[in-house]
Amino acid sequence: MKLAPLLAQYLYIHKRLDLPGLGTFLLDSSTIIDQENTNQAKSPIIEGVTFETNASVKESPELIQFISIQAGKIKALAAADLESHLGLAQQFINIGKPFLFEGIGSLSKIKSSDFIFTPGQVLAEKFVEHQTKETNSNTVEAPDDYKSVFYGPKVKMKWAKPVTLILVLVGIGLAIWGGYTVYKRTSSADDSITDANEAPANTENQTIMLPDTVAIVKKDTLITTVSNIPAGTVKFVLETADAARAFPRLNRLKNFQWNVQMETADSLSYKIFMLLPVNIADTSRVLDSLTRLNGKRVYIEN
């Protein structure tokens, strides 16, 4: 359906027609337009219509809705059609020619920038009103802004949030796993360095697993009997222990190139000692040095 007759029909029904950039048509509320008995060849001049000039009048949402329903178009296209029609009217009026609004009348412009309205004939075309169709939940509502027809609606991706959450959780898991792996490797390396650099002074705290029979050297050959201490020699006792500790300890100290010996009186208690040629003045200093190196208190036995 053409736009011009729709404007007239809207005025007949609502008694007011706002046209942006031009002004407002008003129809007297007492005027009744009888289109049923109007002959197209003998249409009467419309009565009770006036025009008020107002270039700042705003677009009427009700008019756009009316055009959209009756023309079977979405609101955006209805608004675009109205804007185009009014633009054409302004072009005619600005060049001094009257513009006819079918079923209403014509507008022309005078020097004072006001419009002169000349009533026209009543619209002879019978109006058939189209009702708004009910929409169900699956119907997409037409956009109000005609620009959205060209740019398209914005589609929200409902899967974006769950996927983002999953990626964040996976990232946190990988970070924790990587940190644990690095920590484990670093701890293993530190333990290896500590074992390698452990001083001989702490060897008494280590448990050495040895076979039941002492390797290489028999126990009897490791025991030394010292009856008399040579003159100028001092006997420094490093440790007294049972056989299970004494023999491994003796072998370890020998591996450290310590000139140690061992003696026992009852085969239950074994004494590990050293005979060192030391001046009496240096006895205390040597005793302190041996105690620090041995890790246990060293004493002198006469």
Features:
8 helices; three-stranded antiparallel beta sheet; alpha+beta; 38% helix; 10 strands; 302 residues; Alpha-Beta Plaits; four-stranded antiparallel beta sheet
Instruction: Give the overall shape, derived from the CA principal axes.
Output: rod-shaped
- Structural category is alpha+beta
Helix content: 25-40%
| Regions with little confidence, pLDDT below 50 for 5+ residues | 134-142, 199-217
Radius of gyration: 57 Å
Number of structural units classed as domains: 2
How far apart lie the N and C ends? Answer: 133 Å
The helix-strand sequence is: HEEEHHEEEHHHEHEEHE
What about the largest sheet? 4 strands, antiparallel
Task: Round the mean pLDDT to the nearest integer and report it.
Answer: 79
Strand content: 15-25%
Strand order of the largest sheet: 8-9-7-10
Strand element count: 10
Annotation field: number of helices: 8
Task: Give an overview in words.
It is a single chain. The chain is an alpha+beta fold. It has 2 domains: 3-129 and 143-151, no CATH class; 206-301, Alpha-Beta Plaits. The protein contains 8 helices and 10 strands. The strands form 3 sheets. A 4-stranded antiparallel β-sheet has the order 8-9-7-10. The chain has a 3-stranded antiparallel β-sheet with strand order 1-2-3, with helices on one face. Helix 1 crosses helix 2 (61-71) and helix 2 packs across helix 3. The radius of gyration is 57 Å and the shape is rod-shaped. The N and C termini lie far apart (133 Å).
